[in-house]
Amino acid sequence: MADYLPVNSNSLRSDTTIGCDLYLRIKTKFENRYVLYCKDDIVFGDNKKGMLCEKNISRLFIKKDDQQKYYEYLENNFQEIITDVRIPPSQRTKIVHSAATNLVKDLFNDPRAGNIERTKTFAYNMVDYILQEGRAARSLLNIAIHEYYTYTHSVNVAAVGTLFAKELGFKNEDLKHFCSGILLHDIGKTRISTDILNKKGKLTKEEYEKIKKHPETGVEILKETGNGFTDEYLITLQHHENYDGTGYPHGLGKDEIHHTGKIARIIDVYDALTTTRSYAQAKRPFAALVEMKEKMINCFDKELFVEFIRFSGPYDQRAKQRKNNKVH
Ligand SMILES: [Fe+2]
Which Pfam families does the entry mention (predicted)? Predict the structure, then answer.
């Protein structure tokens, strides 16, 4: 039997063709039955949408094999979905995050020009969403990611980084380039073997040397596409440069590192520490900030780091609150 996946019915716009079959789940005493609700090439009209609202049905189902088609639909209708005020902000945030994760997954599986251009377009839309939603977009930070993959990392770093850059006063165009640069920042890892990327033990010197090449390889990949990615190059190239000059690939220090590279360095470390990786457990946000301050402070521009602590504050309070609620 084919596997089915739930999709949020709010993500389906009236009078569009979804491109994959939609099913209703009927629960009986003995089994779940999936009944075809709208065929892939039939327009999902107001009547179909209205019926779901009437019956208070918030989820439809698609076949697992059709997942890619559904994500394509989300991406093509992204602007309309994220500006639809009838969809609750928390659901819009989930749609943004899952569409972004799927996109970056495609990008890392096949980093060709088309997918790079798609990422750029998506980043611009994601910034529109963040600018439009204001503080509500901070719920992007609350989406828990338990496994470490390069692509979920890239989405998290882009979400946290863009919200932080907005707080620092970045304006529309700069924010768009920044978000797109951050989504692409680890693209050079696509040319490193996954055996090295996912290795549990300590890396050998040779393996580490290969890892250290990914910022430059990333720039090469971006240049191969022939796009004008000036800001994106800088973030990709400099996100492992340390303020004290101990980073890679060029050992740049202080103001040799571009402002966006300094921000990317902070966010990259923060996300790595707060996410479970193949070789380390995730830390709570507060513990991650303490570790960054105590063990790595020389890697960061101190003023920016203080700003980042300020920025993370309310989020960490909320995270603690959630933890306390669980305990009691
Ligand atoms: Fe990296």
Answer: HD_5
